[in-house]
Each structure stands twice: as C-alpha cells, then as structure tokens.
Amino acid sequence: MKKRLVSVLGVSISLLLAGCGDGDQASGEDKKEIRVGFGVGTYEQQFKEGILPILEEKGYTVDTTTFSQNMQLNPAMQEGSLDATIFQSTAYMEGINDERDMNMTGIVFVPSAPQGLYSEHHDSLDEVKDGSTVGVPNDPVNQERAVRILEELGWVTVSDDAGVTDFTLDGVEPADYDIDIKVLDAAQILVSLQDIDFGIVNGNYIASAPDRKITDALKIENTPEQHRIIVTIEEENESKEWATDLKEAYESDEFREYIESNEQYDGFIMTEAWN
Questions:
Q1: Which of 27, 53, 130, 187 is most buried, judging by how many CB atoms fall within 10 Å of its CB?
Q2: What's the maximum distance between 2 C-alpha atoms anywhere in the chain?
C-alpha cells in the first residue's frame, strides 16, 4: 500500500495531484490498482485495518491519500486522481454532484459514526440555560444534522424549508432556551469543548480520539440514511470489477469481525448486509 498526506496550505489541489496517475489508465475494467482518498479520521483506519487485507488477498495494490480538508476530495475525483473516496454522506455527495456537475454514486454504506452532543463542563442536558454556547459544524450538511439534534431536544425550532445541502442558521429560532450557537470547523469542535458549554461532534473524530467513546455523548443522533458515510465512485465505474470487489469487502464477514471486535466502533451504525 502506498500512502500520501495532502495539505492545502499554499498549494492548489491541481498541483498537489498532478502526479497521481493517468485517468484513462485508472478506468480499466480489470485494473488491479485502486486509488482511494480519505479525510482525516476513523474511516481511513477502518479501511487500512479491515478492508485493505481483503483487497490485497485478491491481488489489488491500493494507493491511499489522506486529505487535510474534506473539500479537496471530490475535486480530486473529478480530476481523475482518485477512484474512490470514503468520507462523505449521500446528502453531501448529491449536493456536490449538483454544484460541480459530477456523477458520483455511493456503492455501499460503511460503519458510520453518529454525531453526538458532548460537554467538558456539564454532566446532564438539564444544565442547559439561556446563553449556553453550543458548537455546530460549519458545513451545511453536518450543520443541519447538528441542529436537528438541538431541535429534538427542544432547544431550537427549525423552519420547514430549511433544506439540507443548502442549510443555514437563518431558519433556526430559539425554543425552550435562547442558546448561543457557535459555528466552528467540524474538526475543531472536539478540541474546543473547553471553551463552550456543549458541542455537537461528528462521530469519526470521537472514534479517533484515544480517550473518547461515541457512547459518552449526552445525546446521540438517530442518523438518517442520507447522512451515513458511503464509499463513493463515479457512476461510470459502478459495474467495474474493482468496484464490485470493494463493495463486497465492506459487506464481508471478515470486515464485520474486525469491526465487532474493536471497541472503538461501539455505537457505530452497521451495514444492512450484516442484519
């Protein structure tokens, strides 16, 4: 397995990915080299420890790239530098398809970490009050998920036309409490818990933290299917053998045993194929 770490500091995506491979060569029906991109977090670990051995047994060479910002991955796929990404939900993918005129599709759900409401300062949801600060992610899709948790708790109301991929806080009003919503980078909410009363954290960041568990949350989201993480590829590749093998690896008993034997994934939403 080859691995790269990509950062956007002062460098364009085009330059970073210029040497990642020829798009025509990558589209071959029977190719045995797959290029997979990840954001920072637990889904890369799942792949490396649970999926990669299965693919290598089938003769695949996998080239992985970890991107420092999620916004880099879909442009990289559009440029032909990646065959698959594992970081986004169906809702996020569909929004990007519209925004960038892409034709991505999800081929399989992966064990997904739900969002949760966490706090360093409070042990109970009953401790919320007017003026309590609550951190939510800055991207529309994850922000909508977070606000739905607050809505379920009765802390806010959300307008019927709030949307998902175009969600903003304009349609959010106080309900039982006049809380102060702080918009933060999703990756920074966990480390910002010392500075706010509550924070809604994407579960992959919790699962990657050595001293955290999903089940430590004061409130865990009931994750809708549209917000669960998927393996994303271009639609034109859906019938390729490598895509089928990748899908089957995620649905395999071998991968299930890896997930179920690792306490890190307690609280994750599992693949329907295992039900």
A1: 187
A2: 60
Task: Please state, in angstroms and rounded to a whole number, the distance separating the CA atoms of residues 143 and 169.
Answer: 9
* Inter-CA distances, 125 with 101, 119, 221, Å: 42, 9, 14
3.40.190.10, 3.20.20.70, 3.30.365.10, 2.60.120.10: CATH of 116-222: 3.40.190.10
pLDDT tens for 168-205 read 999 999 999 999 999 999 989 999 999 999 999 999 89
Instruction: Count the Cβ atoms, other than its own, within 10 Å of residue 159.
Output: 10
Confidence of residue 111 (pLDDT cuts 50, 70, 90): very high
User: Cα–Cα distance between 155 and 145 in angstroms, integer?
Assistant: 14
Contact in structure between 120 and 191 (CB atoms under 8 Å): no
Nearest to 75 by CA among 61, 62, 65: 65
Q: What superfamily would CATH give domain 2-112+226-274? A: Periplasmic binding protein-like II (3.40.190.10)
Pairing of strands 61-67, 33-38: parallel
For 243-275, how does the pLDDT look when each residue is reduced to its tens digit (9 = 90+)? 999 999 999 999 999 999 998 899 999 988 898
pLDDT at 16 over 50: no
